[in-house]
Amino acid sequence: MPTPVKSVLPVVLLGCGGVGRYLLRHIVSCRPLHANQGVAIRVVGVADSSSLLVADDVHSSGLDDALLTHLCAAKAAGSPLSSLLGQVSGNYQLFRNPEARSKVIDAATKLGRTTGLVLVDCSATYDTASLMKDAVDHGCCIVLANKKPLTGPYEDFQKLVSNFRQIRFESTVGAGLPVIASVTRIIASGDPVSRIVGSLSGTLGYVMSELEDGKRFSEVVKTAKSLGFTEPDPRDDLGGMDVARKALILARLLGQQISMDNINVESLYPSELGPDAVSTEDFLESGLVQLDRSMEERVKTASSRGNVLRYVCEIGSKGCQVGLKELPKDSALGRLRGSDNVVEIYSRCYESSPLVIQGAGAGNDTTAAGVLADIMDLQDLFQRTA
Ligand SMILES: NC(=O)C1=CN([C@@H]2O[C@H](COP(=O)(O)OP(=O)(O)OC[C@H]3O[C@@H](n4cnc5c(N)ncnc54)[C@H](OP(=O)(O)O)[C@@H]3O)[C@@H](O)[C@H]2O)C=CC1
Ligand SMILES: N[C@@H](CC=O)C(=O)O
Question: For L-homoserine, which residues are the binding ones (predicted)?
Answer without folding.
Answer: 231
